[in-house]
């Protein structure tokens, strides 16, 4: 007689609210003050640089009357390069801050995933679904609080680290 293969039946299921685990985790809440401090530090540095540029621009405008048109044009071009460099620097720092935040969140997500797998093993669950796609489930299937509790105990903080700035393409020297 020919054997028919039977699909494996899923017997035990759990549900998790991934977004709630992330948003309510102690580590995620710990990220905000770190990001605010980093932003504030950079904003202070950029404010100082902007102040210097404003002073340089005033000086340039005052020198306009005594400089030849060619000399003024050269000074103005040099000034514009400084402004452009500062803007590029600010954009680069913003990208680094975004990457640092993303890396911090990723660390929390990995910890939460590992804890979810661990709980699935302990409870002998065949499947854990995100609640985002679920219309109804019995409350006892929800593992969110269990995952969140373990995550907060094991991973209460995450340190935000600025990644190194990207290296300029080879061959371009400034």
Structure report:
With 174 residues, this protein is mostly helical. It is built from four helices and two strands; from the N terminus they run βαααβα. It has helices at 18-24, 26-63, 69-122, 144-154, and strands at residues 13-16, 127-130. Strands 1-2 form a two-stranded parallel sheet. Helix 1 (18-24) runs parallel beside helix 4, helix 2 (26-63) runs antiparallel to helix 3 and helix 3 crosses helix 4. The termini are far apart.
Instruction: Please list the strands of the largest sheet in the order they lie side by side.
Output: 1-2
The string of secondary-structure elements, in order, is: EHHHEH
* Ends distance: 78 Å
Radius of gyration: 28 Å
**Looking at the structure, what is the overall shape?**
elongated
What class would the helix/strand composition place it in?
Answer: mainly alpha
Number of helices: 4
Layout of SSEs?
Blueprint: E1 13-16, H1 18-24, H2 26-63, H3 69-122, E2 127-130, H4 144-154
Parallel strand pairs: 1-2
Helix pairs in contact: 1-4, 2-3, 3-4
Task: Report a brief summary of the structure.
The protein is mainly alpha-helical and 174 residues long. The chain is 63% helix and 5% strand. Helix 1 (18-24) runs parallel beside helix 4 and helix 2 packs antiparallel against helix 3 (69-122).
Keywords:
174 residues, two-stranded parallel ribbon, 2 strands, elongated
């Amino acid at each position: 007689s020919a054997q028919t293969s039977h699909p494996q039946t899923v017997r035990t299921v759990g549900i998790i609210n991934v977004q709630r685990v992330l948003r309510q985790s102690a580590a995620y809440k710990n990220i905000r003050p770190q990001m605010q401090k980093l932003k504030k530090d950079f904003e202070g540095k950029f404010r100082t640089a902007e102040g210097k540029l404003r002073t340089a621009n005033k000086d340039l405008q005052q020198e306009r009357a005594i400089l030849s048109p060619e000399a003024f044009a050269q000074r103005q071009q040099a000034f514009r390069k400084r402004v452009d460099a500062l803007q590029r620097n600010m954009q680069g720092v913003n990208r680094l801050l975004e990457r640092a935040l993303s890396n911090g969140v990723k660390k929390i997500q990995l910890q939460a995933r590992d804890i979810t797998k661990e709980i699935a093993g302990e409870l002998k669950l065949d499947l854990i679904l995100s609640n985002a796609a679920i219309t109804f489930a019995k409350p006892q299937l929800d593992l969110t609080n269990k995952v969140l509790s373990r995550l907060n105990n094991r991973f209460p903080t995450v340190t935000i680290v600025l990644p190194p700035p990207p290296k300029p393409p080879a061959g371009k020297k400034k």
